[in-house]
Amino acid sequence: MQDVSPAATVSAGRGPDRPPVDAPAELLRRLRARTGADPVTHVERVPARAGERAPWPEWTPEQLRAAFARRGVVAPWRHQSRAADLAYAGRSVVVATGTASGKSLAYQLPALATLLADPRATVLYLSPTKALAADQLRAVAGLELDGVRPACYDGDTPRAERDWIRRHARFVLTNPDMLHHGILPGHAHWSGFLRRLAYVVVDECHTYRGVFGSHVAHVLRRLRRQCARFGRTPVFILASATSGDPATAAGRLTGLPVAAVTEDASPRGGVTFALWEPPLLPADADATVADLTPVRRSALRETADLLADTVAAGVRTLAFVRSRKGAEVVAANARRALDEAVPGLGERVAAYRAGYLREERRELERALLHGDLLGLASTNALELGVDLVGLDAVLICGWPGTRASLWQQAGRAGRSGGEALAVLVARDDPLDTYLVHHPEALFGRPVEATVLDPANPYVLGPQLACAAAEAPLTPADLELFGEGAKEAVDDLVAAGALRQRPTGWYWRHRERPEVDLRGEGGAPVCVVEAATGRLLGTVDGGSSHFLLHPGAVYLHQGVSYVVDALDLADGCALVHPEEPDWSTHARDVTSLTVASVRSYVDAGPVGLFLGEVDVTSQVVSYQRRRIASGEVIDTRPLDLPARELRTVAVWFTLSPESMTSAGIAPADVPGALHAAEHAGIGLLPLMATCDRWDIGGLSTALHPDTEAPTVFVYDGHPGGAGFAERAYRTAAQWLRATRDAIAECGCEAGCPSCVQSPKCGNGNNPLSKPDAVRVLDVVLANLPADHPPRQPGPADAPDAEPPGDGERDRMLASGAQE
Ligand SMILES: [Zn+2]
Ligand SMILES: [Zn+2]
């Protein structure tokens, strides 16, 4: 979490070996001079902003004012004071401002003032990570206020201390998982704390999105319910990164009306922001589309070179890389390049990611703060819980998924009063390519809204079971849990989990329901070095089939391991150290059936649908690719169980006639749909806060359920996560951007920047780039720009008739999935 105190601002510590290049413009000039063709497609100057102070609210106790003054805070920024005033007056409030804008003070001020004024009151603080809670504990404890007794209560808290914390701590810091698994089920032990609860602080609340966010929304409702039993209605104070419509998202998360404070009054250094497209590689005569041989220099290699160059120039640089593997590769390549230039200089670069053990993380943070390290390659794990601001340069390797994340990452750059450089390096994929050529889609646009759906029945049912196990559900509770709660309770009764009595619904079992907040991912899988038994780190269950299958190359702190065995029952993968010169890429196969249609648009030869689907997928093989060139060495089979998924999908159908009229030969229909599907998945993150790994797709020239050529795009989470729904609501915009991204790509037959997909189960075959544009032209010509959704009658489900469908061409019965 960021700290407002100037005293806490990072200093460079041990000075760089060479004089730093001060002006970001000069640094950028040197970076772009390195290559032949200019890789920079756009430069945006984000001006510096002066801060605006406000007086301390008059209710601020003198002791608190003095404590903040000792920390160097002379007065709050205006947004801090506004949020604090609202919360102190009893309004739930969300403060959604930029990185390092001092959101902590906005909740510390009213919470601590209340604890000082009312010696009985308590505060519960929730953060998405233990590391962030530990930082906040240090910050609050450092104020040395009488009788506040702050304490962390999480999985690491020793048993012996837990009882003391429940009885005596008045500022308890924990996380939603602990609230869900520990505090709420044990509410009898917490009654003293809960009956005096004045504030609930929800930090970094934008991270509660998708399925996880929907679960957390109900955990908070369960907390409100327990407080209400004691006649208590705590005020919620939420802190969010800059996000679109934070009041609505916070309202969905808490179930309460929430006021938003969004005007950031903290000072900010200026940033020169460059969009960077790696150069095209020389054409390879042997390459075929199916090889997925990169057409551009990879963003990882480009970022590694940029990192080496900035570190060599003495510039303190943070490189954000999307995947854990990628961060390791960037650090390793930058180290190698630096050591070749000046032996030993490579030591000034390291990698960082969430799976690291706490001690390793803290050591890396400390080294960068003190300047022992000049370059750090990180996954977005660093977005949470680390007080690193004031860097000279930030490299962002690949679009981070949302404008909100982009600004949060870029916000790490810029010492107070100084200028900094941020560079977005495009990956070879449709969305990145589209964005570096459409800067208007990045700059001067509001950031995305956080999407969550508490009405998801796959979340609501299990959460109501947890609530009932804590205390019988009453009719009034149904209102608290919102839309769909009555249906979910009826289902639980029918399934024998709840018993209905005149006084309410009772949990029937002795054991508590087992519910995992992190969605279908399941328990994390431990990565263990077979020879030593050493725990290297963890991988979330949902990714384990992809990342830890036998033969997978797994990187940890730049050291490469190969997986010997994945034991799904025990939740552990055994690995040995080995450094092959290839990387591994898992592939899955998918089939899909339509279960029901929620809503549709009848647009002549085109139909657009939203509904529930059943998806069966299985990781069946993996490719080995040369790290240096991306060349495919071979594809090897895997024997992993299939996984079933009931989820939400958006799909569109076209009549075969409309495709023929558009000039698509029957034999090219599968390739046309497949290419449109890939690009559509690639561009969907422009509309929703997801990435392409959150969604899946399937296209077919004839689907048995739609009886027409169809492209499906579905949420990769049980019950859906709101992404496909968002695609349906914004279909015209989404498919327009998809069409433009394909048509504007400079390649001839399709490339990773337009229609190829890195996770295609069909080896990117067949794909027809020009026909994909024709397909989307037909859809867009017929689809109304602003479509009124229709609710289907019983006759529509589950067999959604494609409107305007005519004869179907039996030659086209071939399918493809991403
Ligand atoms: Zn292309
Ligand atoms: Zn595919």
Overview of the structural elements:
The chain is of the alpha/beta class and 818 residues long. The two termini are 38 Å apart. The longest helix is centred in the first third of the chain and has 20 residues, at 210-229. The chain contains 24 helices and 28 strands. The strands form five sheets. Strands 1-9-14-13-10-12-11 form a seven-stranded mixed sheet, sandwiched between helices. The chain has a seven-stranded parallel sheet with strand order 4-5-3-6-7-2-8, sandwiched between helices. It is 32% helix and 22% strand. It binds zinc ion (ZN) (2 copies). One zinc ion binds at residues 674, 678, 757, 760, 762, 816, 818.
Brief characterization of the structure:
The protein has 818 residues and is α/β, with parallel strands linked by helices. The chain contains 24 helices and 28 strands.
Distance between the termini: 38 Å
Look at the helices and sheets and give the structural class: alpha/beta
User: Which molecules are bound in this entry?
Assistant: zinc ion
* Radius of gyration over C-alpha positions, nearest whole angstrom: 27 Å
